[in-house]
Design a protein that fits this description.
Layout (H helix, E strand, L loop, with lengths): L1 H15 L48 E2 L8 E3 L8 E6 L4 E7 L6 E6 L5 E6 L10 E5 L7 E8 L8 E10 L19 E3 L8 E7 L3 E8 L5 E6 L5 E6 L7 E7 L3 E9 L9 E10 L10 E3 L5 E6 L5 E7 L5 E8 L5 E6 L15 E5 L4 E8 L10 E11 L11 E2 L4 E8 L6 E7 L4 E7 L10 E6 L4 E2 L3 E4 L2 E7 L4 E8 L7 E10 L2
Parallel strand pairs: 1-3, 18-20, 26-28
Antiparallel strand pairs: 2-9, 3-8, 4-7, 4-9, 5-6, 5-8, 10-17, 11-16, 12-15, 12-17, 13-14, 13-16, 19-25, 20-24, 21-23, 21-25, 22-24, 27-35, 28-34, 29-33, 29-35, 30-31, 30-34, 32-33
Length: about 525
């Protein structure tokens, strides 16, 4: 009865589990221990699917050559005369960084690296490099582990003569992605993050969502003086970029005003010493810029404003102010800024373009108002080192009032001599101060003015002029702390003295004197 029950139970279990390879059948009543082969299947393990956890090998696309990373192996592949690209493939390991190094003396090529779905994730156009004298390294990281990535290398239009020579190297683990399509996301905050430049030339690339018009800053401290820092758009065009080549400092920062959308922060630590040390970096959103950069968005300043404080938030920042003025009055605007930076100022009347930069001191601009408002344009002097440090600056405004002397001989201020003090004030580069006098043929007349001694300050330009417009510039002499210009009148009649300057450094007041000299 017991045997019958056991047999019935076994039949039920067999019916519930129809798997053809379910265990090994042993005859009823056989003692497994008495048979040396009992419980042993000579074919056990011959079925590759039986209990196997191994993944099948990756499938390399037809026509592609599988690359195995090597630090020393150099591949030299003939390119032939056709247009068919060279095709390679490799299998990425999790978190690894790969260098595709095209050796020096290669002719032009186009390289296209794609992921397993056929999506292009890096494209290099070197068609116009000719016979490149330098080795070029293309850095790939942040790749999908275990996926097959393909590399197509197309030759230039003109058939090449030389083989394509390259190396493919596994550079080990990378803490961040190196490609735009694989860049990890980053949310701007005050929270610093640390990273490591695993080897020279690789970079850490991050994507972040921006707000149009906001200013973003990347601020880093590196272990060495060798670094590159920048912001890039989705077309890989730099929005702001700086490196340590000229500064020889371990602190780096750069900023830009976003056009909106997704942008990229690039951090490249080119340290070459071992052991490698981490860098620290902060990505900040500084919010909207403080002043508009067009005449439509200009910051309005009421008439009589003496000064205003603002800041240069990026190297490309520009601020525009709409200043309330009195028509006919002359104005001067000057800028002082902190740090190792310099201001540039320009001005424009409503409806006109901003003036070209005036000679000399670019941190000063001057104009004569023709309407009730006038625009002042502020940006940074590009001659100073192009590194970003937020620049606090102050604009000062001076109202010099109406013109003190006429601008032509017809409106000149008359002089009587024989010795007469003359006060001159050249308010802006368009201003002329004209003085007139009655001359006798053969008589000598002289104008002398104080010699400006401030560093870089220029002297006023001057010339004698007759009623027909003929100019008599003559030679300038310097005696002690004054310069002088002398005219021997060729004929009797009315003459004028014209004083002006094209340089902001010579603007302002001058103390002069007019003398009738002995014949």
């Amino acid at each position: 009865m017991l045997v019958a029950c056991l047999f019935a139970l076994g039949a039920c279990e067999s019916k519930d589990d129809p798997a053809p390879d379910a265990g090994t059948t042993v005859d009823a009543g056989t003692d497994a221990g008495s048979d040396p082969d009992a419980g042993s299947d000579p074919d056990a393990g011959s079925d590759p699917d039986a209990g196997s956890t191994e993944q099948p090998p990756p499938l390399i696309p037809e026509g592609y050559t599988l690359l195995m990373p090597s630090e020393t192996e150099v591949h030299s592949v003939p390119r032939g005369g056709g247009e068919a690209p060279l095709r390679f493939a490799f299998v990425a390991e999790a978190g690894h960084h790969y260098d595709f190094i095209v050796e020096a003396a290669n002719e032009g090529y186009v390289l296209d690296m794609r992921d397993a779905q056929g999506r292009s994730i890096d494209r290099v156009d070197q068609r116009f490099s000719g016979l490149d004298p330098f080795a070029r390294s293309w850095h790939w990281s942040g790749l999908t582990a275990g996926a097959v990535h393909t590399v197509d290398v197309s030759q230039v239009t003109v058939p090449t003569r030389l083989p394509f020579v390259f190396r493919f190297v596994d550079m080990g683990l990378d803490d961040s992605g190196d490609l735009f399509t694989t860049a990890p996301s980053w949310t701007p905050s005050e929270q610093p993050r640390m990273g490591t430049g695993e080897h020279k030339g690789e970079r850490d690339l991050f994507s972040f969502q921006t707000v149009e018009g906001h200013v973003y800053v990347l601020d880093s401290v590196f272990p060495t003086m060798f670094w590159e820092l920048g912001f890039f758009d989705s077309l890989k065009e730099p929005q702001a970029f700086v490196n340590g080549m000229y500064f020889r400092e371990t602190h780096a920062a750069t900023a830009f005003k976003s056009p909106g959308g997704v942008l990229y922060a690039s951090i490249q630590d080119n340290q070459v010493t071992l052991p490698l040390q981490p860098y620290t970096v902060v990505l900040k959103d500084l919010g909207a810029e403080d002043h508009g950069d067009t005449v439509e968005t200009a910051t309005a300043l009421s008439a009589g404003t003496a000064s205003v404080q603002a800041k240069m938030e990026t190297l490309k920042d520009k601020d525009i102010f709409s200043l309330g003025v009195v028509a006919g009055h002359a104005y001067r605007v000057s800028c002082t800024i902190d740090g190792d930076k310099g201001c540039r100022l320009r001005n424009a009347a409503p409806g006109s373009d901003f003036s070209s930069l005036q000679g000399g001191d670019m941190s000063t601009t001057a104009f004569r108002a023709s309407q009730a408002t006038h625009f002042v344009h502020v940006d940074l002097d590009p001659v100073v080192p192009a590194r970003w440090v937020e620049g606090q600056y102050t604009l000062q405004f001076e109202d010099f009032g109406a013109d003190d002397h006429g601008d032509t001989l017809a409106t000149a201020t008359p002089l009587t001599g024989p010795s007469q003090a003359v006060s001159v004030f050249i308010a802006d580069p368009s201003d002329h101060d004209f003085f007139s006098f009655e001359a006798t043929a053969g008589q000598r007349y002289q104008l002398s003015c104080e010699w400006k001694t401030n560093p870089g300050q220029l002297q006023l330009s001057s010339a004698f002029e007759d009623m027909q417009g003929t100019r008599y510039p003559g030679a300038i002499e310097r005696v002690d702390q004054r310069w002088m210009r002398t005219l021997t009148a060729p004929t009797s009649g009315t003459y004028g003295i014209d004083l002006w300057t094209a340089y902001t450094v010579a603007l302002g007041a001058s103390s002069c004197q007019f003398d009738v000299l002995a014949p």
